[in-house]
Every structure is written in structure tokens, then in C-alpha cells.
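Quick one:
INPUT:
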């Protein structure tokens, strides 16, 4: 038996029989294909009726259904709708996004149960004390909204039954699950508000959902909760078996499975046993002690793996009973469900095994006819038919009614399970009577579906042409009218009997046919008792008033219909049927295209063809090809990623077709660079690119704008763009055409505007002197504005210093502001204005040497001093002098008792200077010895 092996999990799907339909079940359960891929990862990319796999002349084939809209690839060849390909053993198949391998001979089931079934919920909505689980495979999505009242649409997540549920739009949003994260995208046509955590979402906007996010959809308020994901483990940790793993039952009956769980986790733990994938109300789980449990939990001790006899306290045997209810929503077919065992301690782990439940088909057809009676010669009846079975069926309507013309609007139609439909039947009395009472005409209706039959009866109650009151009046004057009426009756009888039949209509449909094609002869006759045809109809009795006769002429023929009245008077009418020889099927000699690949949409491609033996030729799509002759060419301009042109040649014998596929190659970006990978804040950088095969080219900034007030700009006609980023920015170049999209990115680092240095040199000056202000700024550009206040004002780009000469102590502030900044950055320095540096002109002592007890005068001259101190070296003398003028001279008298150095210190706010002067004490002069007395002078004679 053949099989399909699906996905990386190697799920085996048996091909039961020699013809199976592969596809995806409908969300409302009204349709399930023979092989259902809907529950697998990527299953939503498979069309409902995707493809048939069938066996012909000992070989297997795959044919794509005409309604398929998703991709179909067999052994590397992409198939279009209606196309078929042979399936060899091992052939690789891709349906939508699901990879399959065809195994012609089938195979043994895998040794381990396949962990499959629908994905577990990974998140949930909580609203109005209700919990709505969210489950999708990675990359899958769920529609969010409100169902249609007529049942024609139902979203995956239906909020209709919640309070204010009718304020939710039908197609409100799309929930996507990617990489473990749920996303919500608001549909573009939503008319009701969508609010996330107090922020209104725009139409078409997609946002990530986080745990405890609050959503408002219309007036429905729901909280999003992320569920903890539990990893799946193998039998080396948790052993789980289900016997049997496949069930076949009737709806309403119960089946039982024995579930065995063995703990190899290495520790004691509670195990929760669950059945997932079928409604919980179908299931009952009984613990080993026979009690029913909801939820079902068992406590198991550890036992080593792969032991012949596991420890009894590490093993639990439970019973699972499943009873699908007998109602129309318990659809027939195979359902895959999962039995799982999950530990409750940390870390949690889960083991699951898949099972198959096959529910047999049952029928439950009910019908009613409304109204039961029509009180006029013609009327309309409605037959309401309800399929209460669990499988779609085809309903057929058969009618019967003597004396009635009956018309059924739909004699045959499909009817899904759980669905009610209506058929209209028009009934009209063929020949309305003239006299007497009302006549009842019975309308019999037989409704058939499968093996079910419903017989219904309706009545057409027809009044006479002559009203009853006129008939009553006539009965009272009847004695007078009897002779008159007899004469009139004789005249009328003669008129009726002697008039030949009137063949009102006699036609052949069709009047011209191919040999072997049946023709329907139909007629309508008044006053006919019998009808014959030439050529003869054989033993078939022809209806006299109106009827049909099927004939199969082998050559052009003339058919004559002869009608006879009661006394044998006849009339006839003939019709000709042309019979043509059977034509040959047309032949497509060639169908070529000048190119199979083009670089972008709108490029011309020439289709060339030659056809013989066709009565009608068409090429689709036909929007650019108006007239197709036997031989010709046409220029088309494909606008889709892959356009399939189909040439169809038709005549009475049939049709043939050929296809040509034109693929638009995706665009290419050869390079995307910048001349300035690092710029100052608001500085200019040029983006340059080389791209081809695009119809649209855009640049988008992840932060800030590409151009003022534009985060994304169209640069289709450009080859470069100048940008002025205000912060580190990544620019994305996107090239698109109908064939796809290409992107490249460039990052530009932005040096932020910063004043690194601002100082005064010297920081203190004398009044009238100058100080130099110098600065250094990083991240400045030509658009940066720099100024110094007070007095200096704006400074030019590249300038780094300026001289100032304040007349008093001043705080100078430098300011810099660039594009996009709301306020400037600043730095301050101070220039202190004082008297200048202290200087001492001189300090002298006069006399410099004195005798002890004498005085000396210290004379001095200083500049820019605010205070003068004179101290002696022996510490016995100190003199403080306050100075109020820049130039100061003075003197003091000192009388040291010993040689002393006097130090003059002059100081101001900028510092101080000192200078000494020494007064030397001379040694005392020795007292001279007394002079001895001189002898008296001798007087001379004669003196």
C-alpha cells in the first residue's frame, strides 16, 4: 500500500485505495479530505482540495485541482492547476510549504509512536471569565474576529459570544506565531477601534504581544497571557503507550484505550494525563483505582529505564473512554488526537503519542414542504432539506404529479452536514377544468440523499374556470337552455371531431449535430388522440399532447410527426436534422515565448503560436491578447511573479492546451555604500548604490528621517542620496519588483556634539590685560552653531580660541547647538580681573649700620599690593600696613638692639612677594686712656 512521508518528523500517511484527495479540512468541520495535512506545521498553506493522487495502468500520478491557489512541486517541477505528473517511488512533493516523499510500496510503521496532532496552546486570551486558547505551529497564523450570522464565515478566534462581541469586526485582525512570539496585525478594513495597553493601533499595524498585555477590540476587553512551554522528551525519561492507538466507531458509541505511564525521570513526580485534539466532553479518564478524574493525575516513583520489570509504584495504568456524540458536527472521517503525560514538578517535561479515531458515516435526512396546499391553478412550493448526518452528501429531488407541469430549480445539489438548504418547485395545472367543484392535484416529492429517502406530498387545489356561482345560476335556468345547449353541443362536437389536430410546435434540438450525437425531438399538439413519427419510434408510445423523443441519426435526416384526432383526421409537420462527420481534435503545432525570464514587470515578451483544426482559439490571461488566429504572435507584458499563459484550441471534438510560464526574476542590489561611515551630529553623508531589475527603490532609516519628515523615501530614479543623521542610524535600501524583494543595509555612526575643553589662560589677569579663551568641540558639523557670551558672540567653524579683556571678573559660557537639538550644550570658565602681580621696587635701611640704641629708617616702594607686612628676624617687631593704591611708598623707623633683618612682604589676591633689608648694630668704640698732665711751660728770658 502506497504512503506519503510528511515533514521532518517523517509522519506516515497511508494512501488508502487507488484514488485519494489530499488537502486541508475546513474550520467548521464540514469538509475533510482523504489525506488531511491541515493539522501539520505549515498546514494552512495547503489548499482545501489541493491535489488527487491516483493509480492508472499500474502507475501512480498526481493531478492538481482546478481550485488550488498554493504551490505544487513534484520532483522539482512546478505544476499549474489541472496539470498532472507521474509519481515515481521516492518522488519529492511540496504542497504549499509541506514537504512530502512518495513511497509507492508503503513501509512498516515507525518503531516509536509519532508525536503529532494539533499544536499545543502557547498563549490564551482571558475575557469575561472565559479562556480562549491560542495554538499554532511556528510560522502559522489565526484569524481573529466575529462569525457571520449565516454561517458563511467563522474566524479561528471567534469573539462573537463575549459581551459586546458584536462590536468586533468580522475580519478584525491576524494573530501570527513566529519564533515563540505572538504578533497581532490589525486588518486594513477594520472599522472598530483596536487598543493595546491604552494606545490605539493604526490600520495595518502589527505589534508584538507580551504577557499581561490588555487589548480592546471594539468594546471587548481581553488580557493576553503567554503560557509556559513544556519541552517534549523521549521514552528514556517518560514511557507512554496507548493500546490500541487506532479506533473505528460509530458516532454515539464508546471506545476504550489502555494508557500506561512509566516514570524514568530519576525522581518522584505527579503526572498529568490529558487527551488533546478532540473535544474534552467526548473523553473520560479513569485512574488505576477505577475512579474518574478531571484532571487525571497519578504520583509515580522512579524506575530505571529499559528494565524488564519496572517498579510497580513507578507504573500507572489508566483507561480512556471516548464517545463522539451522534450529531451533525461529529464529522465522519479520521481524526488525529494526542494522549500526553506531563510532569508537574520542576523542570516540567512532556511525553505524547498520537492516535487515530475513525468515525463512521451516518445519515439523518429530514425534509418538509411549505406550503402543503396551493389554492390556485399554479403556485410555488419550498422544500426545506436538513442534513443531520455527519458527512456531506448530494441531495436529489424527484417529482411526480398527474395533470401538472412541474419545474424544479435545483434537481441535484451538494449539502454539507449540519446545513439546511431550500429547493423551489413550481407546479401548474396542465388543463384547467371548466365546470364542477375544485379539483385536487397531488404533487409527489421524493428527496434522496445517499441511502435516505423522504417522501413529501403537496396539493394544488384548482378552481374551475367558470365560478361556482355562475354554475348555480345556470342550473336554475337549465330547463330553458337544454334544447339550445343540445344544438350547441352537436355543433361543437362536429367542430371538434371534424377539425384536424393542430401541431403548434415541432423542433429538433440541436438541429445540427456530429454523427453519433443524440437529438431531442419535442412537440406540442392540440386535439390529438395519437401521434406517430417517421422514421418510426419503434414500440415507444408517443404522448399526444406534448412530449419528447430521443433519436441518434447517422446521416442527415428528415423527421415527420403525424397527429390523429378522434375520428382519424390527421395533420403532420417535419423537421430536418443535419448530421456532420466527427471532427478531429485540434493540434497545437507550436507555442513559444521569446523569453522565459524577464528582469522586471512590464517588459515585453513575444508569444508565438501555430494551431491547426481549431474552431476556437484562446490565450489566457487575455487582457493583452484580443484576437487569436490559427497562426500569430502577440506581445505581452507580464506583471506577476510567475505568469502562466495557456493556449487553448477547441473544436467540436474537444480541446487541447499548452502553457508557457514567464517568471520575473527578483531584483538585485550589487552594492550599497556611504562615503562617510562616521559623521558629526547632523553632518552630511552620501549613500550610493548600484541596483538592477527593480521597479521601485526605497531607503528607510531605522531612526530619524532620510529626508525632513520622511522616514522612508522613494529613490527609484536616483543613484545616490545625501542624509544627515542625528544619531547612529542604519539605512535599508529595498529594491522590489513583482518577482520579489532585495535589501541591503548601511550603518552610519554619529559622533555626538560635545564640548570637551573650554578654559581661560591665564585664569586671572590685571585689569586692562588680556586672557585667551580656548575650546575643543567634537561632533560639530557645518550646520553646528557656536557662540560665547558675554561680549564674544558667534564664532566661526574651525576657530578654537579668542582673546578677551574684561574690566572685571567675568564668567564666559560657550554654547553649541546642532540639527534636531531642542537646546544647546554649554560649558563655563571664569576670568578673574585683579591688580596684577605684586612687585617690590626696593626696600632699604638708612643708615644700614647703627650703634646700639640708635635708629634706622626702612624705606620701601611696592606695586599692586593690597597689604604689606614688615617683620623682624628675631620676631620682636611686626608692622601691618593696608594699601589702598596700586603704587605705594613708605618708611618706618626701627631701633634694633642687635643686627636684625627686616622682611617686607607685599601681597594681593594673586599672590605675594617678599624682600629683606638688614640693619647692622656696630660694636661700641673703646674709651681712650686719660692723657697725662703736661708740665708747665718754661718761660724764656727776655719773654
Amino acid at each position: 500500500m502506497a504512503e506519503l512521508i510528511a515533514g521532518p518528523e517523517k509522519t506516515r500517511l497511508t494512501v488508502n485505495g487507488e484514488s485519494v484527495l489530499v488537502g486541508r479540512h475546513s474550520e467548521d468541520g464540514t469538509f475533510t479530505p482523504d489525506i488531511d495535512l491541515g493539522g501539520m506545521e505549515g498546514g494552512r498553506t495547503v489548499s482545501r482540495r489541493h491535489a488527487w493522487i491516483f493509480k492508472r495502468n499500474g502507475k501512480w500520478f498526481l493531478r492538481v485541482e482546478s481550485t488550488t491557489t498554493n504551490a505544487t512541486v513534484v520532483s522539482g517541477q512546478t505544476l499549474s492547476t489541472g496539470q498532472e505528473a507521474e509519481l515515481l517511488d521516492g518522488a519529492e512533493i511540496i504542497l504549499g510549504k509541506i514537504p512530502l516523499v512518495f513511497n509507492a510500496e508503503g513501509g512498516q510503521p515507525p518503531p516509536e509512536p509519532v508525536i503529532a496532532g494539533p499544536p499545543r496552546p502557547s498563549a490564551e486570551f482571558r475575557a469575561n471569565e472565559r479562556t480562549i486558547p491560542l495554538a499554532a505551529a511556528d510560522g502559522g497564523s489565526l484569524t481573529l474576529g466575529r462569525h457571520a450570522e449565516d454561517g458563511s464565515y467563522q474566524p479561528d478566534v471567534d469573539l462573537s459570544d463575549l459581551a459586546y462581541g458584536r462590536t468586533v469586526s468580522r475580519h478584525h485582525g491576524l494573530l501570527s506565531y513566529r519564533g515563540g512570539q505572538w504578533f497581532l496585525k490589525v486588518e486594513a478594513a477594520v472599522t472598530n477601534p483596536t487598543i493595546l495597553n491604552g494606545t490605539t493601533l493604526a490600520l495595518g499595524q502589527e505589534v508584538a504581544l507580551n504577557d499581561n498585555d490588555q487589548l480592546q477590540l471594539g468594546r471587548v476587553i481581553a488580557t493576553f497571557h503567554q503560557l509556559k512551554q513544556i519541552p517534549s522528551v523521549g521514552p528514556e525519561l517518560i514511557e507512554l503507550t496507548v493500546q490500541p492507538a487506532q479506533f473505528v466507531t460509530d458516532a454515539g458509541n464508546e471506545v476504550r484505550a489502555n494508557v500506561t505511564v512509566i516514570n524514568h525521570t530519576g525522581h518522584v513526580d505527579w503526572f498529568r494525563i490529558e487527551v488533546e485534539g478532540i473535544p474534552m466532553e467526548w473523553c473520560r479518564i479513569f485512574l488505576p483505582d477505577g475512579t474518574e478524574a478531571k484532571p487525571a493525575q497519578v504520583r509515580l516513583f522512579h524506575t530505571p529505564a529499559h528494565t524488564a520489570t519496572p517498579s510497580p509504584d513507578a507504573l500507572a495504568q489508566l483507561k480512556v473512554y471516548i464517545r463522539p456524540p451522534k450529531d451533525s458536527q461529529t464529522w465522519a472521517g479520521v481524526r488525529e488526537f494526542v494522549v500526553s503525560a506531563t510532569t508537574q514538578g520542576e523542570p516540567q517535561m512532556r511525553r505524547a503519542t498520537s492516535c487515530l479515531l475513525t468515525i463512521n458515516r451516518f445519515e439523518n435526512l429530514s425534509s418538509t414542504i411549505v406550503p402543503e396546499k396551493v389554492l390556485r391553478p399554479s403556485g410555488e412550493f419550498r422544500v426545506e432539506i436538513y442534513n443531520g448526518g455527519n458527512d456531506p452528501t448530494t441531495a436529489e429531488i424527484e417529482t411526480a404529479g398527474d395533470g401538472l407541469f412541474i419545474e424544479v430549480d435545483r434537481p441535484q445539489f451538494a449539502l454539507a452536514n449540519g446545513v439546511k438548504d431550500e429547493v423551489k418547485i413550481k407546479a401548474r395545472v396542465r388543463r384547467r377544468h371548466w365546470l364542477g367543484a375544485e379539483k385536487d392535484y397531488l404533487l409527489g416529492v421524493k428527496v434522496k440523499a445517499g441511502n435516505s429517502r423522504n417522501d413529501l406530498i403537496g396539493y394544488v387545489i384548482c378552481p374551475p374556470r367558470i365560478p361556482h356561482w355562475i354554475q348555480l345560476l345556470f342550473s336554475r335556468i337549465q330547463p330553458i337552455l337544454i334544447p339550445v345547449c343540445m344544438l350547441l353541443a352537436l355543433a361543437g362536437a362536429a367542430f371538434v371531431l371534424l377539425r384536424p389536430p393542430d401541431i403548434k410546435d415541432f423542433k429538433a434540438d440541436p438541429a445540427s449535430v456530429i454523427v453519433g450525437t443524440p437529438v431531442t425531438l419535442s412537440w406540442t399538439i392540440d386535439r390529438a388522440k395519437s401521434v406517430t413519427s417517421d422514421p418510426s419510434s419503434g414500440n415507444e408510445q408517443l404522448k399526444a399532447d406534448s412530449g419528447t423523443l430521443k433519436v441518434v441519426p447517422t446521416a442527415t435526416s428528415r423527421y415527420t410527426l403525424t397527429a390523429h384526432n378522434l375520428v382519424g383526421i390527421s395533420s403532420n409537420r417535419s423537421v430536418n436534422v443535419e448530421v456532420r462527420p466527427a471532427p478531429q481534435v485540434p493540434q497545437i503545432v507550436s507555442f513559444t515565448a521569446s523569453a522565459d525570464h524577464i528582469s522586471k514587470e512590464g517588459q515585453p515578451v513575444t508569444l508565438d503560436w501555430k494551431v491547426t483544426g481549431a474552431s476556437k482559439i484562446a490565450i489566457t490571461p487575455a487582457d493583452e491578447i484580443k484576437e487569436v488566429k490559427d497562426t500569430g504572435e502577440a506581445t505581452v507584458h507580464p506583471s506577476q511573479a510567475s505568469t502562466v499563459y495557456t493556449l487553448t484550441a477547441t473544436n467540436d471534438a474537444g480541446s487541447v492546451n499548452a502553457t508557457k510560464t514567464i517568471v520575473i526574476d527578483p531584483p538585485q542590489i550589487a552594492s550599497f555604500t556611504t562615503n562617510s561611515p562616521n559623521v558629526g551630529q547632523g553632518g552630511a553623508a552620501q549613500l550610493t548604490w548600484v541596483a538592477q531589475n527593480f521597479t521601485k527603490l526605497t531607503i528607510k532609516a531605522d531612526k530619524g528621517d532620510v529626508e525632513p519628515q520622511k522616514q522612508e523615501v522613494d529613490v527609484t530614479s536616483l543613484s545616490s542620496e545625501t542624509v544627515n543623521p542625528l544619531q547612529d542610524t542604519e539605512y535599508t535600501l529595498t529594491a522590489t519588483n513583482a518577482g520579489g524583494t532585495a535589501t541591503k543595509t548601511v550603518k552610519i555612526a554619529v559622533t555626538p556634539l560635545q564640548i570637551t575643553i573650554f578654559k581661560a589662560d591665564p585664569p586671572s589677569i590685571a585689569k586692562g590685560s588680556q586672557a585667551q579663551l580656548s575650546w575643543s568641540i567634537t561632533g560639530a558639523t557645518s550646520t553646528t552653531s557656536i557662540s560665547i557670551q558675554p561680549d564674544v558672540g558667534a564664532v566661526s567653524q574651525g576657530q578654537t580660541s579668542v582673546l578677551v579683556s574684561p574690566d572685571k571678573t567675568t564668567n564666559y559660557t560657550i554654547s553649541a547647538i546642532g540639527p534636531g537639538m531642542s537646546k544647546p550644550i554649554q560649558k563655563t570658565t571664569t576670568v578673574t580681573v585683579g591688580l596684577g602681580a605684586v612687585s617690590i621696587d626696593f626696600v632699604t635701611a638708612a643708615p644700614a649700620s647703627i650703634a646700639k640704641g640708635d635708629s634706622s629708617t626702612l624705606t620701601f616702594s611696592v606695586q599692586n599690593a593690597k597689604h604689606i607686612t614688615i617683620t623682624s628676624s628675631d620676631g620682636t617687631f611686626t608692622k601691618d600696613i593696608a594699601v589702598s593704591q596700586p603704587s605705594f611708598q613708605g618708611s618706618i623707623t626701627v631701633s634694633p638692639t642687635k643686627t636684625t633683618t627686616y622682611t617686607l612682604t607685599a601681597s594681593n589676591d594673586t599672590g605675594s612677594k617678599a624682600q629683606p633689608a638688614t640693619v647692622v648694630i656696630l660694636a661700641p668704640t673703646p674709651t681712650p686712656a686719660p692723657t697725662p698732665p703736661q708740665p708747665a711751660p718754661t718761660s724764656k728770658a727776655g719773654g
